Amino acid sequence: MDRALYIAMTGAKNNMMAQGIRANNMANLNTAGFKADFEQSRSMGVYYGDGQPTRAYALTETPGADFESGPMMTTGNPMDVAIQGEGFIAVQAPDGSEAYTRAGNLAVDATGTLRTANGLPVIGNAGPIALPPLDKMEVGADGTISVIALGQTAETMVETNRIKLVRPDIKNLEKGPDGLFRQRDGLDAAVDGTVRVASGVLEGSNVNAMSEFTQILTLSRQFDMQLKLMKTAEENANASAQLLQIS
Length: 247
Prior knowledge:
Oligomer: single chain
Structural class: alpha+beta
Radius of gyration: 25 Å
Strand order of the largest sheet: 6-5-14
Number of strands: 18
Distance between the termini: 19 Å
Strand content: 25-35%
Number of domains: 2
Number of helices: 2
């Protein structure tokens, strides 16, 4: 069978993968702190023994995420925080490892654990932050958490913990399937005292809906082109088979 069929097949397959990346970006258009994923395609030569490659197959990659800040939205909720400039909030991933996010829509669960909106514990001075029963909580610009205990007055507000704020090198960060960032070397990032947060504010997704929609349409047209090429390769193979039968 003509190898062009396989070449077109890899193109169509990787167009679909690229569309999946773009569709995921669109699905997270309203996700707080979400960073859009990039995708790129390139040709990959296929070698058969010694010599030059006789075919070039398509390959789609996810080279990284867009670390540009999203729009800042004032909510007035003291449990909402947004990183100002560079930096991340440290959280505990489901596997117990440390990971990083820009999503600052926080909440306190029934056990007093401070968590992100998707249930991940926020890391403080000595692991996940646990708070006493409280009437009010405030987060300072440096991540310091001050609370008024349940039944107490404003004069009794005390500092109880501090959110771990980090500024790792983005070149050393990779984004996992769970949407969290981790350092490629597997180490935990150190606390950075220069990172600042704003209380009562949320950072929105940095996905550009118009750009993503345009890219999805472009990839869809490319996918159709690959299918037409596959059909042409099939027709050529059938025509060749008929010629051989005649001869």
